[in-house]
């Protein structure tokens, strides 16, 4: 059952005779087994505080707070995994470089645009997926592109005046 949880499978455990839902007890037992095998993920102070909330006024709010906290942590973990994939970083940066190169080609040689295979196409929306480590570079690139466009406009205006 522990593997099912890690795979993201939802399940219910019911008593065969009474039909009582035993899911909470089974999941708690899995946590207990991991904690006793030295695979503890729950700090002692957390456990003490958790026990302290039983029977108190905050007990009603604790489940939703813990669920939101775990969802937030899970989302952050997904982002960390994406960012920690070096090939993914390299691949995404290569795609960004190709897009930037093509944009530069279009600016300096209007009407000439390189062709791409389907595998080289950016994701839906025409954008290469962002990466937390590359956001600053993308913003800097956008600022440079705006500056280049402004310079091109100024050059075009100057050439018309001559």
Summary tags:
162 residues, mainly alpha, 2 domains, 6 helices, elongated, PHA_DNA-bd_N, coiled coil
Describe the structure.
The chain is mainly alpha-helical and 162 residues long. It folds into 2 domains: 1-41, no CATH class; 86-161, no CATH class. Helix content is 63%, strand content 0%. It has 6 helices and no strands. The longest helix is centred in the last third of the chain and has 27 residues, at 135-161. The protein is elongated. It starts with a helix and ends with a helix. The model is unreliable at 117-121 (pLDDT under 50).
Shape descriptor: elongated
- Figure out the total of helices: 6
What is the strand content? under 5%
* Global mean pLDDT: 77
- Estimate percent helicity: 55-70%
Low-confidence residue ranges: 117-121
Overall tally of domains: 2
Number of strands: 0
| Overall SS class | mainly alpha
The run of helices and strands is HHHHHH
Sheet with most strands: none
What is the radius of gyration? 27 Å
State the separation between the terminal residues, measured CA to CA: 79 Å
Keywords: Coiled coil
Organism: Hyphomonas hirschiana VP5
Protein name: Polyhydroxyalkanoate synthesis repressor PhaR
InterPro entries: PHA_DNA-bd_N, PHB_accumulat
């Amino acid at each position: 059952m522990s593997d099912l949880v890690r795979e993201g499978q939802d399940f219910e455990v019911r008593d065969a005779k009474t039909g009582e839902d035993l899911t909470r007890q089974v999941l708690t037992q899995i946590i207990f087994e991991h904690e006793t095998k030295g695979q503890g993920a729950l700090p002692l102070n957390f456990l003490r505080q958790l026990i302290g909330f039983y029977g108190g006024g905050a007990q009603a709010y604790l489940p939703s707070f813990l669920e939101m906290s775990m969802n937030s942590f899970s989302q952050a973990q997904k982002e960390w995994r994406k960012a920690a994939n070096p090939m993914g970083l390299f691949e995404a940066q290569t795609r960004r470089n190709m897009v930037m190169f093509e944009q530069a080609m279009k600016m300096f040689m209007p009407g000439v645009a390189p062709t791409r295979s389907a595998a080289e196409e950016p994701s839906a929306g025409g954008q290469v997926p962002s990466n937390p480590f590359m956001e600053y570079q993308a913003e800097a690139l956008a600022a440079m592109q705006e500056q280049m466009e402004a310079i091109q406009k100024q050059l075009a205006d100057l050439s018309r005046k001559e």
